Structure formats: structure tokens, C-alpha cells
Amino acid sequence: MTPGIRPLIAGNWKMHGLSADGLALARAVAAGAPGAAELLVCPPATLVAALAAALARFVILGHSERRGAYRETDPTVRAKAEAAIAAGLTPIVCVGEPEDDRLLGRAEEVVADQLAGSLPDGFAAAGGVVAYEPVWAIGTGRTPTEADIAAMHAMIRARLEARFGAAGGGLRILYGGSVKPGNAAAILAIPHVDGALVGGASLVAADFLGIAAAAG
Ligand code: PGA
Questions:
Q1: Which of 32, 84, 120, 131 is the residue whose CA sits 20 to 30 A from 40?
Q2: Alpha-carbon distance 125 to 114, whole Å?
């Protein structure tokens, strides 16, 4: 965590759920929400209309599944982030290296390039959020070592401060990729891990709330 930054635990539902399931899950999360962390659920576009009246105004952009399956490039993500900010939404911009780049020792270089290309100039003023999600950790049950997460988040913090000044020091940097109730406390204790972006475990209210509880 970063002193003075309130952790954000965001549930990335992807395309899961029909409206009745989604409403039930959102209500269960809202009813069980503990104190310290800010909780967010990110439903699929098909459920936004049903849930929007009650929930926060964030949007996940540049997820690796979209960068991969839809060939979204850094300039596309940047343009979407600009559009989101103009529409009054807070962007959560995802970055993260494929496994090959990690194995070749290029992970930090790849993520630094994604940051430079994907974040618009208005990002810090809009309170934007960065989510570091190593591609190979998503939905696999594998996570980087705590030292590797710490090094990456420190690099991201340094880049945000270099680009946005003091405002960059106050932005939230989430970790995502196989976050579960059992590993959340250790991950959230790493410096500059200011919350989590949670996929699979966000679909079960008790698991999502367990992760939120680990945030303090
Ligand atoms: P996971 O997904 O928690 O299921 O690994 C994370 C994500 O894709 O945001």
C-alpha cells in the first residue's frame, strides 16, 4: 500500500452474469462491504444499464484480453481513456507483460512503454488508476514473486511521478492476476500496491469480500 492512499478493490466481471445474477452479486457485495477499502464492481456492458444507477463510475481499459483479442494498441487505449475522462468516467488502465517478456528480462521495459503510450495527459487530474496485470498471471492461479510485484509497482510509481509530478504520487496502482482471499493480504502489503483488480474471485461475493477484508 501507499501511505495516504485508500485501497481500491475492483471486481472485473468480464462477460459473466445475467441481470438477475449481477444484481444479486452487486447487492451481496454492497451489503457486506467492509470499511477500509473502496469497493468497485465492473459488470459487462450488458449489465451496465441494470447496475449503473447504484454503482461507481469507473471503466476498465486496455485489459490484456482486449489488447490481445481485439488488437487494442496503446494509442487506442489512450484515446479511450481520453474519451472516458471527457465523459466523466474514471479510467482504470491495464498494463502487463506477456510471459515471454518476463522470461527475457524485458517486463519492466514493456510495461513502461505501455504506460507512456496508454495514459493521456489528463490522466492524473482525473484521478486515473493503473492496474498492473502480468498476462501470464490472469486466470492461471500463478502470481509473480512479491519481489517482482514490488519492483514493478515501484517502477510504475516512479514513471507516474516523473510524468505527472506530485499528482502521480497519489494515484492508485492496482495489482491483478490470480488474486484470491488466500494471497490478498500478502500482495496488498507490498509497497505501492494500492488495491487489486480481481477477475474470477470477484464472481463469488464471499471471496471478493474476503479480498477486500485483507485490505484492512
Ligand atoms: P483473475 O483475472 O483474477 O481471474 O486472474 C484478473 C483480470 O483479468 O482482471
A1: 120
A2: 19
Pick the residue whose CA is nearest to atom 9 on ligand 1.
Answer: 199
Nearest to 90 by CA among 122, 46, 63: 122
Q: What are phi and psi of 129, to 5 degrees?
A: -120, 135
Over its C-alpha atoms, the chain yields an Rg (Å, rounded) of 16
From the CA of 200, how far away is ligand 1's center (Å)?
Answer: 6
Chain segment 171-200, per-residue pLDDT in tens: 999 999 999 999 999 999 999 999 999 999
Active site residue 65: no
Residue 53 has pLDDT above 90, yes or no: no
| Of residues 78, 20, 37, 17, the one with CA closest to residue 188 | 37
In this predicted structure, what is the pLDDT of residue 19? 83
- In ligand 1, the atom with minimum distance to the C-alpha of 177 is 5
Catalytically annotated residue among 63, 72, 97, 192: 63
Is this model's pTM higher than 0.90 or not?
A: yes
Ligand 1 within 6 A of CB of 199: yes
Chain-centroid distance, C-alpha 138: 12
What's the pLDDT score for residue 34? 67
Pocket test for ligand 1, best of 135, 198, 208 (most atoms within 8 A of CB): 198
Beta bridge partners of 58: 90
